Amino acid sequence: MHDDQKIEVHRLIGEMPAIFAPGGFRVLNASVGVRAPADGFFDTPVRRFEFFSLSHMYDGGGRLWLADGTECAVEPGDAILIAPNALNRYGGADGMPYVEDSIRFAGPAADAWAARGLLNSGIYRLGTKRRIPELAALLSDPAERVQLLAAARLQELLWSMVPARSGDAGDAAWEKLLTILKEHAGEWWTVTEMAGFLGVRPPVLRRIFLVRTGLLPKNYLERLKLHQAAGWLLEGADSIRDTAGRFGYRDAYHFSRRFKLLFGVSPERYRREYRHLR
């Protein structure tokens, strides 16, 4: 435990600019080509950020400590993501400096990503190609359009990092599972069956789905069925009852109720309103 006097707090200052409010994602600032001292990890105080911080160590060597007990080496190409209020310290180690590009961000959209397990504090593999300098260059331009572009590019970067940390199931097995779910839309897989297919425990499966899709397994499966059903309603001539059966719903009323909950309209109205647009 570290008392408050020994914790260095980095504050989030200012309100979210109006241009970022609709997307809920605010890029604060970026630093490029910062070279921290060799073995600086051991002199770095425990810190707490009131925002998200992404540090890409593209050269040197380092070490990361988190309050959850994590302490590990940082290799060139690793990125350290720190979520708000997570106690942390990192810096150079093994006689090497910590050479980084970094960027900081905040907002309700970022908080929502974190709540779904997509922005957990820890090490992510980003590679040695430097990606943050491009974002820093965009941030230097005050034009609103460019600022929004910087926020969008950062979200793309963060999304590309997600599979690089999950490590709970191979990409090939994951893609095969999704293919089977899509091709056999009339079947209802249980969480246990999906976990068995990937060779993991059900709690691990739930984490994999949250990280890779933002949804729990059952939620993903039902949304997949309903999105496929929506396409079928526009392409085919089946009745609502037959469409429900095609996608695994035994009861047309239940299907209609779940469809309306997702799309905001009944299957009948969805077909009537959108079929002529195809």
Automatic annotation (TrEMBL):
Alphabetical UniProt keywords: Cytoplasm, DNA-binding, Transcription, Transcription regulation
InterPro entries registered for this protein in UniProt: AraC-bd, AraC_XylS_family_regulators, Homeodomain-like_sf, HTH-like, HTH_AraC
Name of protein: HTH-type transcriptional activator RhaS
Phosphoprotein in keyword set: no
Gene3D superfamilies registered for this protein in UniProt: Homeodomain-like
Keyword ATP-binding: no
Gene Ontology molecular function: DNA-binding transcription factor activity; sequence-specific DNA binding
SUPFAM superfamilies assigned: Homeodomain-like (SSF46689), Regulatory protein AraC (SSF51215)
Domain HTH araC/xylS-type: 175-273
